Amino acid sequence: MADPHLTDPARTAPAIAHLRVPMAGARAAAERLSLPGPLRSAQAADHRALWLGPDQWLLIGDGFSEALAVAGGFLTDVSHGRAAVRIGGPRARELLAKGCSLDLHARVFRPGHCAQTSIARTSVLLHALGPDDGFDLYCARSYAQSLWHWLTEAAAEFGYRVM
Question: Within 61-129, where are the H helices?
Fold first, then answer.
């Protein structure tokens, strides 16, 4: 069996939204909506929230509930501006380490962690999924082809398959 596994970005199209709340209300909004803190993610009924900064989160899902309406906040659909790639398999961390300066060791970058970084000179939001689920990478759609090309080239030494 080939490894790691790359999920073709053309096959997946989650709704992606950027939530920004003024600093004055960010803590209250985070508590009320169960939004994650620094470098973490949280799962809700209809979306996953990834921390981007002290007053902003990236929301990924099939849709977003009306409960996300936050006084003074902004929820912006960025689905058409972002691409998502999923990488899995037992050597996924090793593959990502070839182009990323983060410490991706399983004791450091655990499931549920997320961070903005650069992989092969492309800015990405890297999200560690469950222990065997791998990683999701979110990047600007205009850079997705370049990132995809780098991933397939870098994965060649391990063998890989596109799912």
Answer: 92-97
